[in-house]
Amino acid sequence: MEIMFPGWLGVGAVLAVAGVTAWVVQVRRGMGVTSLSNLRPWGSYIAGFVYFMGLSAGCLVLAGLPLVADLPAIRPYAGLAALVALVSLVIGGLFILVDIGRPERVWRMIRHGRLGSPMMWDLLLTVAYFLIGAVLLVAILADAPASVLAVLGVVAVAAGVADGVTAFVFATQVAREFWLSAVQPMAFFAAALASAGALLQLLVLGLAPSGYVDLGLHDTEPLALVTAACLGLGLLFLLSELLTLGFSRRADALRLVRAMTASWMLWVEVVTGVVAVALYLVPATRGSTAGIVVASVLALVHLAAKRVHFVASGLAVPNLDLRGVDLDRGRGGAVLRRPVELALSTGLVGGFVVLTSLGLTVMPLGVTG
What we know:
Elements: H1 6-29, H2 44-68, H3 78-100, H4 108-111, H5 118-141, H6 146-161, H7 164-171, H8 184-207, H9 221-248, H10 251-261, H11 264-281, H12 283-286, H13 289-314, H14 339-362
Helix pairs in contact: 1-14, 2-3, 2-6, 2-8, 2-13, 3-5, 3-14, 5-6, 5-7, 7-8, 8-9, 8-13, 9-10, 9-11, 11-13
C-alpha cells in the first residue's frame, strides 16, 4: 500500500504531536496560557473552526452537485471532496473542543442548549454534516446505485448551503460592529466553495504523478474558474463592508475601518486574494501546473487570513464601557499571540494533513477524467 504524500504526512504528524502536547498544557494550566480572556473570548480556535467548517461545506457541495446534475467537469472530484468534507468536519469539531477549555464539560452544550440559539443550530448542523458526509463517502466507495447517489447528492448540497448557519452565529451578535451584517451568510458560502476548489485542485495535481487519479491539468480548469469567481465575490463583499462602514460616518464604524486597515492581516488577505484570482483567470497561468499550484496555495492563505481577520475585526472596537478596564489594549482581537495557542492551532492543521493522507491511502478514491 503506497502512502499518499509521505513527506506531508511526516510534517503533519510532527505538528499534531506538538499540538497534543500544547493541549495537555492548556488543560492542566487553564486558558490563561492562551491569548483568550473574558473580554476577548474568541481567537484562532474559532477562526480555525469557521475555516474548516467552511471547507467541509464547500466540499459537500462539490461532492453532491455532480451526483444530482450532469456536471462531468466536477464529477471526478466527488469522492475526494467527500473525504475532505469528513476530515474537515472532524478538525473543525476539535477546534471547538479546545476552545471550550474544559473538554469534560462539553456535554453542557447539549444539556443547556436552546433551540432559539444560533450556536445550538450550528451544533446540530455539525452533527448533521458528519452523518451526511459519512454516509455519502460510504455510498461512493460502495459504488451505490445512481438513484441512491442522487438522493444523497441533494442532501449533501443542501447541507453545504446551510453553512450560512455558522455565519448567523456571528451575524446575530448585535453588539459587534463588523459581524452584524446580512452579507455574512453569502460571504461564508463563497469562501466555503473557494477553499474546497483550491484544495481539491492541489490534491488532484499532487496525486496525478502516482497514478492515484487519472486527471490532467485541463481537468482542473472548470474548478479554477469557479474558485476564482468565489474569491472575487469574497473580495467584493469585503470592499462593500468597508465602503458601507466608512460612508455611515458613525464614530464606531470609522474607528473599525481604521482598525481594519491598520491590520497587516487585512492586507495579506487582499493581496493574496487578488493575485490568486489573477493567476486563475489568466490563460497562461491557468494552463500551467505551477500557476495552478501557486494560485491554490495563495487562495488557501487568503482564506485563512480572512478567517483570522474576520474574528479579530469583530473584537477590534470595544462595545462596553467599563471604568478602569482598558478594552483597547491589544486592539484587533487575541489571535495567535501565545506559543501554546499557536502550537495547538497548527497541530490541528497537521492533524488534517495526517487524516487526509491516511484516508487517501486506505480508501480507493482514485478517479478518471
